[in-house]
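Work Package 3 (structural annotation) set out to generate three-dimensional models for the target panel prioritized at the project kickoff. During this period the team completed the workflow that converts sequence records into discrete structure tokens, so that structures can be stored uniformly alongside our sequence database. As a representative example, we reproduce one entry of 62 residues exactly as it appears in the project archive.
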Amino acid sequence: MTQSSLTQEQEAAMTELLELTKDAEEKLREMSKFADAIAEKYQKRLHEITISEAHNYERITG
């Protein structure tokens, strides 16, 4: 059984693909952090609104 090796062109293409994959992975991490920050912001805001509404209800119903 013989072992086949990549041509220089194939190796260059694989290297380029690896770099593109690394770049895409980094961008996805950044987007994930951004999405998490947005979700956290709106969860806090929703909590604030819920508390405010509860206080308003208590004030109205006495």
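DSSP finds one helix and no strands in the chain.
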